Amino acid sequence: MIDKKVKQELNKRVLELPDYKKLDKDFGVAWHPLSGLLIEEWEEQLKEYCKKRNRTYFFGLNEWGMPVCIFDNKNVKDWKDSQKKERARQKKMTDRKWVNPDREKPENYSEEDYRDFVKWQESEINGKEY
User: Fold this and answer.
1) For residue 32, what are the domain limits?
2) How far apart are the first and last CA of the chain?
């Protein structure tokens, strides 16, 4: 049996936006149907957050077709440019081929899959098609 307090905390995480301190650390947030908010309500809450925190933003769709709000960028071009810089910065921080320094190559990746993944990541960093 799941404790009632645990259930309430999990429900709170699904049904509410993260608090401002959490959003301050994020580069963006995606809407989800389980949020219980209409997209318009979700957008209004994020606009209010950005206004209070003096953050620029734009709304768009992620690769799964879900609405997202990206902070500290005005448009997709700015976002892509900032992500290229961030990837390059992370890559300089480590001698690993895996761009995310917090992750190692998954055990279930074959060497061929891993090489393909690294090529794809490098193409993303360099802005070239893979």
Assistant:
1) 4-71
2) 48
What pLDDT, in 10s, does the model give residues 79-109? 889 888 888 877 776 655 555 544 555 566 6
Going by the DSSP 8-state scheme, the letter that residue 99 receives in this structure is S
> CA-CA distances (angstroms) from residue 41 to 47, 72, 84, 107, 126?
10, 21, 31, 42, 37
Taking the C-alpha atoms of residue 32 and residue 37, their distance in angstroms, rounded to an integer, is 8
Beta strands across the sheet bearing 57-61: 28-30, 67-71, 57-61
Q: Which of 71, 98, 115 is the last residue of a domain?
A: 71
Q: How far is CA 13 from CA 34, 66, 118, in A?
A: 10, 18, 34
Please give the model's pTM, rounded to 2 decimal places: 0.61
